[in-house]
Amino acid sequence: MTTVDIYLQLLDRQVLDRDGRLVCKVDDLELQPGPDGVPVVTAILVGPRALGPRLGGRPGRWMNALASRLAATPGDDPPRIPFGAVTAVHSAVDVDRTRDELAVDPLEGWVERHIIGRLPGSGHAGG
Amino acid sequence: MKRVFGVALGILTAIGGFVDIGDLVANALVGARFGLTLAWATVLGVIGICVFAEMSGRVAAVAGRPTFDLVRERLGPRIGLANLAASLLVTLLTFSAEIGGVALALELATSVNYLLWVPVAGLAAWLVMWRVRFSVLENTAGLLGLTLVIFGVALWRLNPDWPQLLNQGISPGNPPGEGLPTYFYYAIALFGAAMTPYEVFFFSSGGVEERWTRKDVVTSRVNVFVGFPLGGLLSLAVAGCAAVVLLPQGITVDTLGQVGLPVAVAVGKLGLAVAILGFVAATFGAALETGLSCGYSVAQYFGWQWGKYVRPREAARFHLVVLVCLIVAVGTVLTTIDPITITEYSLVFSAVALPLTYLPILVIANDPDYLGARVNGRVANLFGTLFLVVILVASVAAIPPMLATRAGQ
Amino acid sequence: MRAGELLGRPVFDHTGRRIGLVADLRCVQEAGPHSSWGVLRLDALVVTERRVTPRLGYGRHQRSPALLRGVLRGLPGQLVVVPWSAVASWSAEGIRLTDSAGG
């Protein structure tokens, strides 16, 4: 029987998409009662609305307030990645989707469309 | 053959990239006031940065994780955020100082007021960070910085009383006329300048940018254990030149021009020209390293895509952070705050940033989840622990002498 | 519920005596659908009075430099593993255990 300590081995690790791109951190994990009532990890929670409550105190409140203002969807629910999409956990967490499919980070897209993407050379290959 | 070339190139860039505006000014200033009696602090700092850069390079090569990933993962979001704030401040202040340093060096070369050069230097730094390939950026800056070897040539040409100089180096203690608090303030400043956290941010992130794998642990080690100490020797040469030329004349160092003065005395105008080229290259290289490090640390804390190995638009927020930091850095220098004073005050934030950066590196370097069989051996752990204690003591000890001496006045 | 809501919560036994804070959530990894890493089922709470995070080297699978290990071992408080089945109720104020749990 393999056991996993989720604070030690899962929380705050980097999430990588199918192509090895950086997606987000494991900002928090969602647990829901299974058929027998025992909680099961159901999703990775992402972004300021997941991280804010863990920060606590003033920085946490600021982060929450900022996130709610910027968020496309109102409310306290952060974007999530279903835990079934996780294919491996090592020094990072591998997920079986692409960054675009996951779409957990609307702000990245906004910055890309409105600021960085408008600068000349933004599509120039990396290296 | 290609591999040998790669390793050699790595060493050269490590040497050239080691010295920045803080090292240049601190070493010349200390040499002019204390001779080589503070050489031990630089040596200690070089050993310390080697110990932790080796660990962070190994983690980057084997696990693919850069330093600020480790900070967030081991310290958690809250203390990680405190470290992010402190490191970002130190790195941003250093970034401003480097931009200012480039401008001051260009003023030396052209006699045009440095404030006019500041926007030029800022724009040039941004263009390079935005468009130039990572390997080209790293190698060019490092290789040009090698022109600082002129300080070694100058010291040799000055033909000083070597035994006496060496004797200074191995007999610590404040010279007559200098108080002990001032002496210790500068000891900590030199140690802090060598161990500044952006070096490990840049070194480990650079490893990921260059797609290091397990095989590159050797490359990383050679860069660290050969390149950094040789870079440290350059720092000592700067201090030595000042000790030989400026100390006997009672000249103190307040400007970048005075840093280069001994070279002019020893090698003449052409030597001075080379030294100024070295100043421009070393500070411009360090501006690139610190600017990118601002982006690396923020993006790695939040888990955003970062790096120059992808198209800029695919790492949008990373490039946005770099751009905003650049604007802040340029704005700071344009307020006419002395760039050299900036580096001295950033030491306070280092007191928070240093322990909180090096502790997680040491812990993860022991974690088989990350490194498998390549975890720290006894020697790495012995030195790591020892230096962590030194860093803690220096961090706490930095504040009282700094206040007592008003930053070494 | 979120993992972050359980972590750091105080834990009390059935008499109301405080045992410590939740330092970690221990899950059993079970086979999941094809190609997935598996299903994590909450099995136990790792409870301690220590304020220093187990991530610094006294958690499982971890090694750390001798001096650091020595300091961490010297910390007051011990690690207690409480099975999730022993949790009677939990709220913002803390987690209360049933009397069958040997806290």
Number of helices of chain B: 18
Biggest protein-protein contact in the assembly: A-B, 38 and 36 residues
**Would you tell me the overall average pLDDT of chain B?**
90
Strand order of the largest sheet of chain C: 4-3-2-1-6-5
- How much of the sequence of chain B is in beta strands? under 5%
Helical run tally of chain C: 2
C-alpha geometry of chain C: flat
Shape of chain B: globular
The protein's oligomeric status is: heterotrimer
Q: How can the largest sheet of chain C be summarized?
A: 6 strands, mixed
Main beta sheet strand tally, sense and closure of chain B:
none
- Number of E strands of chain B: 0
Q: What fraction, in percent, of the residue positions of chain C are helical?
A: 10-25%
Average pLDDT of chain C works out at: 85
Secondary-structure class of chain B: mainly alpha
Describe the structure.
- The complex is a heterotrimer of chains A (127), B (409) and C (103).
- Chain A is built from five helices and eight strands.
- Chain A has helices at residues 6-9, 48-55, 57-70, 99-102, 106-114; strands at residues 2-5, 14-16, 22-25, 28-33, 39-45, 80-82, 86-89, 92-95.
- The longest helix of chain A has 14 residues, at 57-70.
- Helices cover 80% and strands 0% of the residues of chain B.
- The radius of gyration of chain B is 20 Å and the shape is globular.
- The termini of chain B are far apart.
- Chain C contains two helices and six strands; from the N terminus they run αβββαβββ.
- Chain C has a six-stranded mixed beta sheet, with no helix packed on it.
- The longest helix of chain C is centred in the C-terminal third of the chain and has 8 residues, at 66-73.
- The interface between A and C is medium-sized, with 31 and 32 residues.
- Strand 1 (2-5) of chain A pairs antiparallel with strand 2 (18-30) of chain C.
SSE inventory with pairings:
The complex is a heterotrimer of chains A (127), B (409) and C (103).
Chain A: E1 2-5, H1 6-9, E2 14-16, E3 22-25, E4 28-33, E5 39-45, H2 48-55, H3 57-70, E6 80-82, E7 86-89, E8 92-95, H4 99-102, H5 106-114
Parallel strand pairs in A: 2-8
Antiparallel strand pairs in A: 2-3, 4-5, 5-6, 7-8
Chain B: H1 2-18, H2 21-34, H3 39-63, H4 67-110, H5 114-131, H6 134-145, H7 150-158, H8 162-170, H9 180-194, H10 198-209, H11 217-249, H12 256-267, H13 269-302, H14 316-334, H15 339-345, H16 347-364, H17 368-371, H18 378-404
Helix pairs in contact in B: 1-6, 1-11, 2-9, 2-11, 3-9, 3-10, 3-11, 3-16, 3-18, 4-5, 4-10, 4-13, 4-14, 4-15, 4-16, 5-13, 5-14, 6-13, 7-11, 7-12, 9-18, 10-13, 11-12, 12-13, 13-14, 16-18
Chain C: H1 3-6, E1 10-12, E2 18-30, E3 39-48, H2 66-73, E4 80-83, E5 87-91, E6 94-97
Parallel strand pairs in C: 1-6
Antiparallel strand pairs in C: 1-2, 2-3, 3-4, 5-6
